Amino acid sequence: MHLFRPRQANSETSGFTLLELLIVMVIITIGFFALRPTFAGAIMGAQDRAAFRQLVGMFKAARSEAVAKGKLIRIVFDPATAVFHAEAQDEPEVDRANFQSLSLMGRRNFRLPDHLSVGEISVGGETLVETEIIRMYFYPDGRTDGVEMMLVDWRGAEIIVTITSATGGVRVNA
Fold it and tell me: What is the pTM of this model?
């Protein structure tokens, strides 16, 4: 008995021919390219939902932090970098304009995904210029200045994020 004896071709030997393998590979490739836009859209949609959850979470955490610590908290948005970050008022009795960086939800900043952009922002009823740094304040009594922010996704759809001034409640209208 030989361990490495070559197989002999007979009618019972099964397998695929090279032509059959090539045909299957072509079918798989066509299917991949046909479904690729669907997968890309689904991935960007999932990234959008994750970004909205993080943004809403950051706003809610800022309000909670303001109430819990009895300090003025602000979320700052820099449109040049598309980054949101939180700051807490440090020793207001000494200098009311002095703010220190604050970590919310285990993060110091939140950057919007590249395919999301910020459109018009209104704080306290005043529409702000898209190129200026935006500051959204959360007060120790749970109030905010009231914010309405329009985000535009990769398809051009507008999503409105609203922070109610009286309660600090956050709502996303997609």
Answer: 0.73
Task: Note whether 106 and 57 are within 8 A (CB).
Answer: no
Give the C-alpha separation, 76 to 102, whole Å. 11
CA 118/CA 116 separation, integer angstroms: 7
Residue 93 placed within a domain = yes
Q: What CATH number corresponds to the domain at position 153?
A: 3.55.40.10
Residue 133 lies in a domain: yes
Q: Return the half-sphere exposure (C-beta side, CA atoms, 13 A cut-off) of residue 166.
A: 0
> Along the 174 residues of the chain, how does pLDDT read in single tens digits?
555 555 555 555 677 888 889 999 999 998 888 877 777 777 888 888 888 888 889 999 999 999 999 999 999 999 889 999 999 988 766 677 888 889 888 888 899 888 888 888 888 888 877 778 889 999 999 999 899 999 888 788 898 999 999 888 888 886
Number of domains composing the chain: 1
